[in-house]
Amino acid sequence: MKAINLDYTAAAPLDQEVIQAMLPYFIEHYGNPSSGHSLGEKPRKAIDEAREKVARLIGAQAKEIIFTATASEANNLAIKGLIAGGRKKGNHIIASSIEHFSVLNQLKTLQKEGFEVTLLPVDRYGIVDPDQLASAITEQTILISIQTANPEIGTIQPIEELAALARENEIPFHTDAAAAAGWIPIDVEKTGVDLLSLAGDQFYGPKGSAALFVRRGTRMRPLIEGGIQEKGLRAGTENVPALVGMGEAARLAYDSIEERPKKIADLRDQLKESLFNEIPHLHLNGHPEQRLPRNLNISVEFVEGEALLMRLDMAGIYVSSGSSCTSQALKSSHVLSAIGVSAELAQGSLLLTLDKDSSADDITYITGQLAQVAELLRNMSPLYHQFMKEGNKNARV
Amino acid sequence: MKAINLDYTAAAPLDQEVIQAMLPYFIEHYGNPSSGHSLGEKPRKAIDEAREKVARLIGAQAKEIIFTATASEANNLAIKGLIAGGRKKGNHIIASSIEHFSVLNQLKTLQKEGFEVTLLPVDRYGIVDPDQLASAITEQTILISIQTANPEIGTIQPIEELAALARENEIPFHTDAAAAAGWIPIDVEKTGVDLLSLAGDQFYGPKGSAALFVRRGTRMRPLIEGGIQEKGLRAGTENVPALVGMGEAARLAYDSIEERPKKIADLRDQLKESLFNEIPHLHLNGHPEQRLPRNLNISVEFVEGEALLMRLDMAGIYVSSGSSCTSQALKSSHVLSAIGVSAELAQGSLLLTLDKDSSADDITYITGQLAQVAELLRNMSPLYHQFMKEGNKNARV
Amino acid sequence: MPEYSEKVMEHFTKPRNIGEIEEPDGVGEVGNPTCGDMMKFTIKVKDNRLEDVKYFTFGCGAAIAVSSMVSEMAKGKTIEDALKITNKQVAEELGGLPGNKMHCSNLGADALHKAIEDYKEKQKVEA
Amino acid sequence: MPEYSEKVMEHFTKPRNIGEIEEPDGVGEVGNPTCGDMMKFTIKVKDNRLEDVKYFTFGCGAAIAVSSMVSEMAKGKTIEDALKITNKQVAEELGGLPGNKMHCSNLGADALHKAIEDYKEKQKVEA
Ligand SMILES: Cc1ncc(COP(=O)(O)O)c(C=O)c1O
Ligand SMILES: Cc1ncc(COP(=O)(O)O)c(C=O)c1O
To answer: What is the pTM of this model?
Structure first.
């Protein structure tokens, strides 16, 4: 049976170069970078180099990179660490309504603790309006956190414009670039953001590798207190192999920041065209152009996502959905709801993320399978039959 | 040249079994355990199994294991998470004065936020007196955190007795077992602790793998908020290979919890005897019997630790020291100071941790080298010459 | 795949009795697409027995399997016996459902019972 | 190994002029073991020149290298020139020191200067 992954945003296999770069650090150069003796030297140099490579990917300086284990940790360090750093006084925080849960759930907690939180709406494509940000800013605003791109609908924000507003008002600006880094060019000097989260496993690096860019001069407190690793901002023995892997993945992403995303985006566009040509009643979610190269998000009208996912799985195609049934919390996607997708269409949403190894052949297979599956499920859907009847009625009138 | 690591507490190479167990999860079974489709299945089962194995090592149930990236993170989750969970009201926390910085530095922060902190003294061997704990407990005490064993001087605490006091007073008890787990039998049911931190890389598991045992029913809040991984107590994509490695290392440690530590302890005792026989003016730090099997801590009188460390390094022997010069914060060991080791002797302290692959030959080599190095450095030490003169004078009187 | 029993997978893969009975004796609709699940049962009654049971389902794997199972369980039963089918029984017959999918099992029996109620109402009117 | 320059490593590995001059013309002691570093310099002066400079050092790699370097720099210099040796010069001659070890470079010149002061004091007394 075929096996085609279209859920690369959930996980991707390591690049061969990445795993090869990591392997020597499990057994041969197993030392602790903090050791004063020779066994610490290789690992120390290795993470210094990794730091350089990660910094280069986003236009930062190496000393501005704080390694963490996950993007969730980076987001938590960004927000809690900045607030605890407490340079700016106030109790108001602004974010977009389509942030990742590792931002949103913190804000909920902060609200309970007495902070005011403004969640900016987005337009039907998922874009934050800079004017709305401008008018949300108050004297009390101490932090603005707006993602670089959304992992679900792929929409890319006008970060430069948004960050400029923060800067004018001297408010620290954080951007969660976990879905974007490695896929679109990022330059923290150009955009002027103060904090930026990224995740190695989102660009073919290993799980357990992530980082927070902290602009020099930003006053922060650690989330994990203890030793003085990572300039005192993240205690704990460094995960040398993972960070080396992230460095190598960052190098590969940087070196191909034009070609690789373009190749995947072309395939993605072909897939989109093929699906929309062959299957009726599909809807595109997210921005038609300002979107991540590997991301396609559609809603299959009249059917529910988990059933789609299971049927496709049986055909060796792996996707994810924003339906409530596929979410462990049993809530349908807050992102789709924020861009005004109806609850019914959210239930039938499919997130398809392609890979550098996706092929044109895959597209033909996927299209055929999704067409079949959609037909099969529609044929048992009360909504579809209702629509057909009403459609027919309407046609008669 | 020889290369003998005696600093295995800083880092150890992975067991072959451990790396072999991990490898399939980088590329072949690279899926995300949270995925609803088939690619999530293998990784999900793999971390379930790892959880079982880690639980078994400490006598816990699998569902009581929360995976983290480091022991520092586990300690931060334990303390901050419990306080934020807020079942018990009060503002008083008790810990020992020889906790790891990932406990102590949190307590410093909490003190600034208004908490009362009692750091219990330890005796000259590093042991916490249960009577002193009993009299430190107040109506306000909401948490007691006492390590299972100290990574530096190796001293093992009477945890069962200490935890029983906490239980009598209905106070949650946390123990940092990062240095102990895998080396001495641990049974959370027998000791009745509520929270226990452990680190995979301390028993031949990979860096980036650690866990917090959270007794069922303990009310906690996450440190890293976001997705609902790890029962909502630690958001972020699971580091599958690292956790699989930790599971395998836990299995190996559990299966050899009698033999492996005993073999290493025997070698450690031989090393100690050999050193004390051959080199004058050595002092043992820590408890003579109640200590971790692989741990030896001595002070070499009249000389400073970094110089010792560098000279030994040139002879291919890797050790660490509690001297201020070898610490990145330029402070000499708070642990040695707490057990009453003089500042001078703390400067000349050496921490020697052995390994399952350490050999009797190594011991001969180490003894010879340390004897030479100590003599060389003593011959240039003003303290040594002063002692010799005064010693001679005293002898004359 | 979600952690479904073999039985659930079997009914999901090959759902029985899909469809809509023309001129049914009773119709029961429960749920709505907003919540993620919606079922429409139609029944044909003869001599106080469910001669035929069909359904359309919009929903997850569990919802589809539940409707299929309910249709099988109900078919041929007397009205009284069919009304005795409980949500618990449906879940049991399916070899259990994951905790977060138990609510789906409720929909199936509910929709069937609603169809039967509808049949009873119509009987009253006709009587 | 700490990140020391080659020059530091060379002086640490083969420190020059270790020892204590018997009946020295001046003695200078700085630091104490509690802080981690302690140096004792003894000097022999002839015709206003440092004919011999020796030291004992308790301390880290940097401290040992610094004392060795200071002894080399001072030997043969006039009293006046030896007093002009600055901490900065010592660190420079050693090819730099890691930031957290700069304080060691201070000790070396200080100990030397103290020994020279001691010599001067003694001269006064004898005069
Ligand atoms: C007792 C103890 N606690 C905590 C830690 C911190 O471990 P990590 O650096 O993995 O966070 C250590 C490290 O060796 C330890 O020995
Ligand atoms: C934008 C964004 N932020 C945060 C995260 C969280 O990443 P992790 O699960 O590695 O913590 C993700 C995950 O995909 C993401 O896409």
So the answer is: 0.95
